[in-house]
Amino acid sequence: MTCARALAVATCLLALVACQRQPEPAAAPAAPTAAQPAATPAAPTAPAEPVAPAREVTAEQPALKLPTVDGKTYDLAEHRGKWVVVNFWATWCAPCLKEMPELSALHAMRNNIEVVGLAYEDIEPAEMQAFLKEHPVAYPIAIVDTYQPPADFAVPRGLPMSYLIGPDGKIAKQFLGPVEARDIEAAIAAAGGKVG
Q1: What's the count of helices (H) and strands (E) in the chain, helices before strands?
Q2: pLDDT of 166 strictly over 80
Q3: Residue range 88-122, pLDDT digits in tens
Q4: What is the pLDDT of residue 161?
Q5: DSSP code for 78
Q6: How confident is the model at residue 4, as a pLDDT?
Q7: Interval 138-153: pLDDT, tens
Q8: Which residues pair with 141 in a beta bridge?
Q9: Average pLDDT over the chain, rounded to an integer
Q10: Residue 146 φ then ψ, to 5°
């Protein structure tokens, strides 16, 4: 391309940019006429309910009380004295589905370890019940509102996300990604607990 041709192309591009329509300034509102009554000022609206910011860190001793899919209520405080695995998961999460049978076996086989599954997704209870018929587990499942997750737990950074709660109700360990029974048992042993 010659210099003259390049200059002609550049001039055309500048002309196109200069010809683009500029936004027109907003017109001033017209004065009301006899046929048009003056607009009445809008009534003040009540301030919107403040939305609590999502928690970034899980409380040291979290509270958790949620309705479960089977119509009961799960209250973490009622399980003091046992190790509890709080497992955030979703039906669409392949690693979550892979760990469910092992978590179910752990819940069923250990007297001092319990699991609760928190379905972190927008799903109706009937859909979840149908899903659990295909993927049964021995532990309770609650559906968590993704817009208002449990107040004492951080919003999951990924799924699955599990917390091991000690018998004293305090967080002993956090797991990001799939967890196996041996990981949980090792964390219990590291915290000075016994697996029974």
Answers
A1: 4, 7
A2: yes
A3: 999 999 999 999 999 999 999 999 999 999 999 99
A4: 97
A5: G
A6: 47
A7: 999 999 999 888 999 9
A8: 117
A9: 81
A10: -65, -20
DSSP assignments along 82-93, one per residue: SEEEEEEE-TT-
Report the C-alpha gap between 62 and 151 in whole angstroms.
8
> Structural domain boundaries of the chain?
65-190
Report how far residue 160's alpha carbon sits from residue 163's, in angstroms, rounded to the nearest whole number.
10
Orientation of helix 94-109 relative to helix 181-190, angle to 10°: 60
Residue 49: both structure tokens together: 């309910």
The owner of tokens 């086989």 is: 109
Residue 124 in tokens: 């109706």
The fold for domain 65-190 equals Glutaredoxin (3.40.30)
Q: Torsions phi, psi of 7, nearest 5? A: -65, -40
Do the Cβ atoms of 174 and 161 come closer than 8 Å?
Answer: yes
